[in-house]
Design goal:
With 200 residues, the chain is mainly α. It has 9 helices and no strands.
Length: 200
């Protein structure tokens, strides 16, 4: 069922994680029922926000991207999200042995995918790209994402909570390193002429 765990993760994450753990879903099912749809939210709303609304500095006219430029960025952003979820899942699987977990790769990918749910949902704010508003709404969503990670790791990886705390901290560190890597790759791409094109 599409998006069947979203409400539970937002209202009672511990119970919902147990339900997800029992499913033993495949990577394909996890992506088709959850990731592919939710990962489109930041791409679609980011596209609409940068081409239709734009962002304003002071009293100046709103700055917008050309539709072609924004579409290219949105597609690349969508692909990056899909790859990032799978990569983090693979890293969780690889690190699992260190913390005494023997969960299969699909379970680790599911952990990565469902943990990102609040960030996917809050990305509707990209429709109105104002920095202070995005920070005001984005920071609580980020905090809840971290909470989901710390709640989900012990359940999904079948390890004690104490060990789960250390494991979740390691996953969080890996996620931050990946974020820095993506930002660096973005800067390099922009430097080669693949950057955004603004409307005149």
């Amino acid at each position: 069922m599409f998006l069947s765990h979203v409400w539970g993760l937002m209202t009672d994450p511990e119970v919902e994680w147990k339900s997800i753990h029992k499913e033993h879903c495949t990577i394909t099912k996890c992506y088709c029922s959850h990731v592919l749809l939710l990962a489109a939210i930041p791409a679609v709303f980011g596209y609409l926000g940068t081409t239709q609304v734009g962002w304003q500095i002071g009293t100046r006219e709103a700055v917008k991207l050309t539709p072609d430029s924004a579409l290219t960025i949105a597609i690349l952003f969508y692909i990056t999200i899909l790859v990032a979820i799978l990569t983090i899942g693979a890293l969780i699987h690889w690190m699992g042995k260190t913390y005494g977990s023997k969960q299969p790769l699909p379970q680790c990918v599911a952990l990565a995918a469902y943990t990102a749910t609040p960030l996917f949902l809050i990305s509707v704010m990209l429709l109105y790209p104002v920095l202070w508003l995005n920070l005001l709404l984005g920071l609580p969503a980020l905090a809840y994402t971290v909470y989901l990670l710390y709640t989900g790791v012990p359940i999904m990886m079948s390890i004690p909570k104490e060990r789960g705390f250390l494991f979740a901290s390691a996953v969080l560190a890996v996620g931050l390193v990946m974020l820095v890597g993506v930002l660096a790759a973005t800067v390099i791409l922009w430097g080669t002429g693949a950057g955004p094109i603004f409307t005149s």
